[in-house]
User: Fold this.
Amino acid sequence: MNPEFLTITNLIVGITCLISYMVMQNREGKSKLIFHPVTIKGQNEWHRFLTSGFIHADWWHLGINMFVLWSFGNAVEKYLYPHFLGAEFSTLKYMALYFGGIIFSSIPSYLRYHDAPHYAALGASGGVSAVVFAVIFFEPWQNLYLYGIIAIPQILAGVAYLYYSWYMDKKGTDNIGHMAHFTGAVWGFFFTGFMNVDLFARFIQKTLEGPSWF
Assistant:
């Protein structure tokens, strides 16, 4: 097997797909892994902060999260983190970025819903958001391609994403964990920056410089 394929990102994608598939039709298995604040508080099942990131509601939910993680995660793991943070322990830092995003993104929901039996959440969106915003931190003006066609600078897409997540969380009209998206993104940005505080100055400089095509 090509060693280039054996990345932490690809392993996470594979394991997450396998576990998600195994519990999609297994309600008992899903109930043991899902993020359920009342159960966490009452039975001290703190592992749910992490295990909920390995399960998804359906194939659409799983597919989007894993495609975005695969697209951005390999870039962070193989190029950005080793180049800017040093190769030593870069794998551990990357894992802390992703899994820390999953855990940290669930804290607001736990504080809000720890007495609400009806509330439960699942999915890797917090960790995925953390990885995406790590990329934005390094290359704010690099283009994202919406639908593979429409070019949008990453920093503008990131600001719009944060605003949308905050707005939709306040509105509360759907069943999506928008605050987890918001919090995971914040974790990814600041976690990456604090690994090397000089990167904050670099981010500000590159942001003020604007896109190279100006």
User: Anything to note?
Assistant: The longest helix spans residues 59-85. The longest strand covers residues 143-146. The chain is about 70% helix and 5% strand. The mean pLDDT is 91.
